Amino acid sequence: LISFGMDSQPKSKSAQRRSRIQFNKRQAKREQKNEGGKFVRPLPDDNEQLDHEDQVDTDDRDLPNDDKDVVASDRAKADSAPKKYVPPHKRQKMEPVVKQAYLLSEQTLKLARSNLNKIVQQNFPSIAKEIEQLFEKNSRNELIRFITDEIIERCKDVKLDHTAALPSWMALIAVLHTVFGIGIGSYFVEQLVNTFQTEVLDGISDTKASKMMASALSGLYIFGAIENQLIWDALDRLIDRFDPQTIPLILHLIRISGSDLRKEAPAQLKKFIEKVQAKTSELGISLSSDKKSSTSTSTPDLQDEINQFDFQVRFMLQTIYDLKNNRQQLEVSATYFSTMKPIIRDHLQKIGMKASAPINIGWTDLLDAKTRGRWWLVGSAWAGVGDTRQSQTNETNTSTTSIEKIMGGDVTELIALAKQQRMNTEVRRNVFCAVMSSSDYQEAISKIEKLRIPHKQEKEVLFVIIHCSMMEDSFNQYYVHLTHFLCLYQRQMKINLQFALWDRFKMMSTLHVKSVSNLGQYVAHLIGRGSADILVLKVLDFLNGDTKSDLFLRQVFQTLFLEFEKEDVTDVFKMLLKTNMKEAVGLASGLRIFFTKEALALEDKATDPRTKVYLAGTKYYAPILDRVSGNAQLDD
After folding, report:
1. Which of 90, 328, 371, 512 could be a cystine partner for 323, CB 3.0 to 4.6 Å?
2. How far apart are CA 24 and CA 20, in angstroms?
3. DSSP letter string over 358-421?
């Protein structure tokens, strides 16, 4: 240290410190004069205790000695100054919002993030298997929350292009929804819809991020994780806004999922086209109009924007009309989704799973889930609409429900027709009107739900559907779709279907030949699609069956062998091997006898190609039936 005194003898350490403080004070006064009276930090007094300098923080060791004194003095005064009390509720608002941590280990988070980074079409089965193992070993709620946040944040990232990876992510969500249940898939869909609402519909999001979220919705629909109603809800909300930011999103949704929408819901597509036409006619824009939609007083920049908007609207109209006429050109991203569908199917078959029911939740229900509850989850709270006691009263008393209001028109003729078909109860007549007045199975399911039929009378719904299917001039798959999705949405319906079919089997000898043929095809399609088990046939008499029973069984297996894939039919028969019931043994023995009888009766008359395929199928699946019977004998 430098000594500022005239004495050449070295000073003690305390004297050196005191001299340095005096020098700093004089230097500070000079700086204050030069800077015109600016505020200068106060320095400690000469008599201040200096022992604290021996305990300077390690962060201040690199500072000059004079600066260390100033910093130490500031810290001491800041600690001793009184602080104003802040209430807890205001204190929480002042604190920065920190995202809640995931209740998972760092290794689990790192592994999940790594799998999301690596997953592509080529390694999808192996990565999906690893993520499924993570779900089995960790908290499913926390893991799906982490995966959902990661995917949505990457969708909103405008710096990197995740277009190629998005189909693999949506395929992963579809697989997790099938394997672990609706709680996994519905959480992701709920967060995606809320993000789409806030970022796109209510706010102004980047076009690239908006298209990524629209692609995510389309991908979930293409992979069978959600119903098409969510896509229509998104399109309706985009049409209501109808500005230069939403038109590219409408085009994007139509070009990715338009072909599937056209196949599954043509009536909805027609309503959507009418709504678009009404919206464009309000703006004075049509596909053939070439006139400018602005006056000559518009500025050049404004005129360019108007011309560009008109061009976007006309291009959107052309795309929609091409979809209507089945001349649509798919986007490049749509091919990514189409190539992932067989990969998902193969992966589910390897792990012994079948595609589960798609999520059929409305857009409004997802947005209001936090306030009204999640009715789609078992055990979750549900606020509902109106008084709960009043809704229970309405549920037990269907007569108070206006059938005309539900059907949307006059149903006098339908009620008269229902009476002709011997629909002798009010529930049957109402269900008959709902089924026969609907344009597709989705509308029929919606109307049946609005009837609020009590659980004890749900069997009447299937009675009416089976009766209508049998009374058709030719077999109509509309009733198969309706029954299949009713069984998917409500598990109790599958049991009710079994009892309803058994009631019809008891009346087999009194049925018309046309009704028997329609019933056989109806049962075959339900067995092939998994809505009904092959064990539903166990009540039939295979030894002493009459002509109509043989016709029914022949129609069932002929439809299975001709209209379903070989692997699906094999799974139907192999299910008997996995069943330890005696009924499975009796059914296998009865079918084996029936197949042998059919081979002897039709072998010389097999000139029709359909008959040849039918006989080949009876011979191909006979060993499986023999194996079921053999296993039963060994067990006995």
Report:
1. 328
2. 6
3. PB---HHHHHTHHHHB-TTSTT--B--SS-HHHHHHHHH-GGGS-HHHHHTS--HHHHHHHHHT
Tokens of 326: 């089945």
Quick check: 595 and 618 in contact, CB under 8 A?
yes
Question: Comparing 81-90, 211-220, 340-349, which segment has the lowest mean pLDDT?
Answer: 81-90
Residue 571 or residue 51, greater confidence? 571
Nearest partner of 309 among 212, 301, 237, 529, judged by Cα: 301
Assess whether pLDDT exceeds 90 at residue 300.
no
**Alpha-carbon span 185 to 179, nearest angstrom:** 10
How many C-beta atoms lie closer than 10 Å to residue 256's C-beta? Answer: 28
Q: Classify residue 447 by burial, with Cβ atoms within 10 Å: 0-12, 13-18, 19+.
A: buried
Token output for 434: 């709902």
Long-range contacts of 37-41 (CB under 8 A, 24+ apart): 41/70, 41/73, 41/74
Phi, psi of 226, deg, nearest 5 = -130, 160
Helices 247-264, 332-350: inter-axial angle, 10-degree rounding = 50
What's the sign of the alpha-carbon dihedral 531, 536, 542, 544? Answer: negative
Q: Note whether 56 and 73 are within 8 A (CB).
A: no
Alpha carbon 381 to its chain centroid, in Å, reads 20
pLDDT at 398: 40
What is d(CA 307, CA 299) in angstroms, rounded to the nearest whole number?
A: 12
CA separation, residue 105 to residues 66, 100, 119, 138, 139 (Å): 47, 14, 21, 9, 11
pLDDT confidence of 168, banded at 50, 70, 90? very high
How many angstroms separate the most distant Cα atoms in the chain? 135
Alpha-helix runs per DSSP H in 95-227: 106-118, 124-137, 140-156, 166-180, 182-196, 207-222
Q: 396-406 burial by CB neighbour count: b if 16+ within 10 A, else e?
A: eebeeeebeeb
Q: How far apart are CA 63 and CA 494, in angstroms?
A: 80
Check residue 61 and give its pLDDT. Answer: 47
d(CA 553, CA 558): 8
Please report the pLDDT score of residue 79 as a whole number: 53
pLDDT tens-place string over residues 429-450:
888 888 888 888 888 888 888 8
pLDDT in tens, 273-299: 888 888 888 777 765 544 444 444 445
Q: Model-level pTM?
A: 0.51
Q: List the structure tokens of 111.
A: 């592994």
Please say whether the beta carbons of 218 and 171 come within 8 A.
no
Alpha-carbon distance of 437 to 423, in angstroms, equals: 16
Query: Please, what is the average pLDDT of the chain?
Result: 78
